[in-house]
């Protein structure tokens, strides 16, 4: 989903930051006091890179009973959306090598980070992206990652499907399985975004491989 900026017309942010969207604003239906309408907020990582400062692209995970999902799904072109931005400190530091591990929609901040680093800044550090999904039907952006994996020699991408179909030809299992292919040490910065179980398991594994605690950065998604 893309939100074109009106006021202000531009937004300066750092890849990895997020916005906080006001959900249930009566203004969308003709005005009123947001507080009296039971306004709540939902956080969405910005998936566009900072060079696109006239708009913000979001990855919206639609959940049937979610307030945020229902609100975002029902938006129509031209509807006004109020949000606070930029927020968060989950951004890339100056580590010599970079490992990104995501599950599900936790991939969102990494799209902004990696396209900013590779396409805009021409960063030559070694980078790995490990992404875990449950089912093939949940796949998206796959072609984007395959393309930059071919184009940038310093970027390495692995997709893991934990519940693949019977004839699945590629590697299957949990995303942590792919960590065996990455030779980690104290030079690496590790970025984790996804479910709590993955974050806890990977955090312990990379520490055992020599990654410094100060170089492990994490953001939990449901």
Automatic annotation (TrEMBL):
Gene3D superfamilies: Nucleotide-binding domain of ferredoxin-NADP reductase (FNR) module, Translation factors. It holds the Pfam family FAD_binding_6. PROSITE patterns: FAD_FR. Residues 1-93 form the FAD-binding FR-type domain. It comes from the Bacteria. GO terms for molecular function: oxidoreductase activity. PANTHER family: NADH OXIDOREDUCTASE HCR (PTHR47354), PROTEIN RFBI (PTHR47354:SF5). This is FAD-binding FR-type domain-containing protein.
């Amino acid at each position: 989903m893309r939100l074109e900026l009106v006021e202000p017309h531009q937004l300066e942010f750092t890849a990895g930051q997020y916005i906080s969207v006001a959900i249930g604003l009566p203004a969308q239906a003709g005005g009123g006091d947001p507080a009296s309408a039971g306004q709540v907020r939902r956080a969405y990582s910005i998936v566009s890179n900072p060079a696109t400062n006239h708009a913000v692209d979001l990855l919206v995970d639609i959940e049937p009973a979610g307030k945020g999902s229902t609100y975002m799904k029902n938006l129509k072109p031209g509807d006004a959306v109020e949000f606070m931005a930029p927020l968060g400190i989950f951004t890339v530091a100056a580590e010599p090598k970079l490992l990104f591990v995501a599950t599900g929609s936790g991939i969102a901040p990494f799209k902004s980070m990696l396209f900013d680093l590779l396409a805009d800044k021409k960063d030559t550090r070694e980078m790995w992206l490990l992404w875990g999904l449950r089912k093939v039907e949940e796949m998206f952006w796959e072609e984007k990652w395959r393309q930059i994996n071919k184009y940038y020699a310093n970027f390495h991408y692995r997709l893991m499907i934990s519940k693949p179909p019977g004839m699945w030809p590629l590697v299957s299992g949990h995303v942590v399985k792919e960590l065996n292919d990455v030779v980690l040490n104290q030079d690496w910065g590790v970025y984790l975004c996804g479910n709590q179980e993955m974050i806890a398991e990977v955090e312990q594994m990379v520490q055992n491989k020599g990654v410094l605690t100060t170089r492990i950065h994490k953001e939990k998604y449901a």
